[in-house]
Write a structure and sequence with these properties.
The structure holds 2 protein chains of 2 kinds. By secondary structure, chain A is of the alpha/beta class. Chain A folds into 3 domains: 52 residues; 106 residues, Elastase, domain 1, CATH 3.10.170; 158 residues, Neutral Protease Domain 2 (Neutral Protease, domain 2), CATH 1.10.390. Helix content of chain A is 49%, strand content 9%. In chain A, strand 4 and strand 5 form a beta hairpin. In chain A, helix 2 packs across helix 3. Chain A is globular and about 60 Å long. Chain A starts with a helix and ends with a helix. The N terminus of chain A is likely disordered. Chain B is of the alpha+beta class. Chain B has one domain. Chain B is built from 2 helices and 5 strands, in the order ββαβββα. In chain B, a hairpin with a 6-residue loop joins strand 1 and strand 2. In chain B, helix 1 runs antiparallel to helix 2. The longest helix of chain B is centred in the last third of the chain and has 15 residues. In chain B, 33% of the residues are buried. The chains are: A alpha/beta, B alpha+beta. The interface between A and B is medium-sized, with 34 and 21 residues.
Chain lengths: 337, 98
């Protein structure tokens, strides 16, 4: 039997069974499952080609709504700017508005994704949350921004936090231990891609710094995290030293931070950086698409680092063939996974 | 009175520790702190106060408090804390930052 004879049967199988076969089946089952996943990708590509031909802009319309929480923790707060409203005189509102827009545009144009949930989800954000609240987060329904304490941080960007919404809608990686570190890493990966895409930077031109420019003046550091060189972003008397490891040798076992999700994310972050540089060009074109494909297709809620290595390698093979798969396997080996 | 508040998580993933001793606070501040702890019912809290599932980029805390012969230690998620407990957190951070 040729693969094409088997394909009609395989198309009946739902994606999660195809993925299981691709991962655990014997050689024959694995080949057929992978071919079906590729064929599905091609079909999806054809659907987009047809859709794009019918109109000049990608599917979906931005629907941003900005609220002012008035320094309380009650959400969403008072409505201050809608999608078609002009800029207000509150810089925090306008900055959040622009950040939401950039993330939406990246998801739509590069990943062909219609907002956070891929169904045109409205983008709501509240600013001025809490008193000197030095944090920002996605609460499952909306973005929330504090003002920072003025001493260590000066404002926040939307990209990382908003992409947590995408992760929740796709692999929904459990937010603790290694799956949590992967969750964090995917948010950093998607966030850094939005930035590099906005600035049209190649992998070799980009700084690979998360939260660049967020540290207040006088703080000894360049960013919150570095994907290129985990552990080097800051070293300051008040902040401490950047604790991120670049490889498994430095993996941190801790009860804090849900098992160190913001610390151990350095390892998968570094794997992504290496993949982007080795595949060359703009990071979102190959490495970004591979990682996004894994998030949507081959990762599961409880995937650990080894699972992510398998999933991204599989996605690389599906999208770009054997040589890309081999590059992805090698970068995970380089970080000790 | 002795109090330690450790914070981890947040999108920056930083670890912050605040330590307060009754002897270094003036009487009014100590009274304020004691009142806030009572309103938050800290000595009645379980050892762990968790959100139904950990949420991205939220803070997690560990509070250790000793006062008038009572002591307790509580680990809690920001998302699971009462408004009174969050007020206590704010007050501790304000006093420690002075």
């Amino acid at each position: 039997m040729t693969p094409s004879d088997r394909r009609p049967l395989c198309c009946i199988l739902p994606p999660h069974i195809l993925q299981h076969l691709a991962r655990h089946g014997d050689d024959e089952a694995r080949t057929v499952a992978l071919e079906t996943l590729v064929a599905t990708e091609r079909l999806r590509g054809e659907r987009h080609a047809i859709a794009d031909g019918l109109r000049d802009v990608p599917a979906g319309v931005k629907r941003r709504t900005l609220y002012d929480a008035g320094h309380t923790q009650r959400l969403p707060g008072k409505l201050v700017r809608g999608e078609n409203d002009p800029a207000t005189d509150d810089g925090a509102v306008n900055q959040a508005f622009d950040g939401l827009g950039a993330t939406y545009d990246f998801l739509a144009e590069v990943m062909k994704r219609n907002s956070i949930d891929d169904r045109g989800q409205r983008l709501d954000a509240s600013v001025h949350y809490g008193r000197r609240y030095d944090n920002a987060f996605w609460n499952g329904r909306q973005m929330v921004f504090g003002d920072g304490d003025g001493k260590l941080f000066q404002g926040f960007t939307s990209w990382h936090e908003l992409t947590h919404g995408v992760i929740d809608a796709e692999a929904a990686l459990v937010y603790s231990g290694q799956s949590g570190a992967l969750n964090e890493s995917f948010a950093d990966v998607l966030g850094i891609l939005v930035k590099q895409w906005k600035l049209r930077q190649t992998s070799s031109e980009a700084s690979w710094l998360i939260g660049e420019g967020l540290l207040a003046k006088g703080v000894k550091g360049v960013a919150l995290r570095s994907m290129k060189a985990p552990g080097t972003a800051y070293d300051d008397a008040r902040l401490g030293k950047d604790p991120q490891p670049a490889t498994m040798k430095g993996y941190v076992q801790t009860e804090e931070d849900n098992g160190g999700v913001h610390i151990n994310s350095g390892i998968p972050n570094h794997a992504f950086y290496l993949a982007a540089v080795k595949l060359g060009g703009y990071a979102w074109e190959k490495a970004g698409r591979i990682w996004y494909h894994a998030l949507c297709n081959t990762l599961s809620r409880k995937s650990d680092f080894a699972g992510a290595a398998q999933a991204t390698a599989m996605s690389a093979g599906v999208l770009f063939g054997a040589s890309a798969e081999s590059v992805v396997r090698s970068v995970w080996a380089e970080v000790g996974v | 009175m002795r109090l330690i508040l450790e914070r981890s998580g947040g999108f920056a993933g930083l670890r912050r520790v605040a330590r307060l001793e009754g002897s270094t606070l003036d009487p009014a501040e100590e009274r304020c702190l004691r009142d806030a702890a009572e309103r938050a019912a800290v000595f009645a809290l379980p050892r762990e106060l968790r959100a139904s599932e950990p949420r991205p980029d939220r803070f997690t805390y560990r509070l250790e408090i000793e006062d008038a012969g009572r002591e307790t230690s509580v680990r809690f998620d920001e998302a699971a804390a009462s408004e009174a407990l969050l007020d206590l957190v704010d007050l501790v951070q304000d006093l420690a930052d002075r």
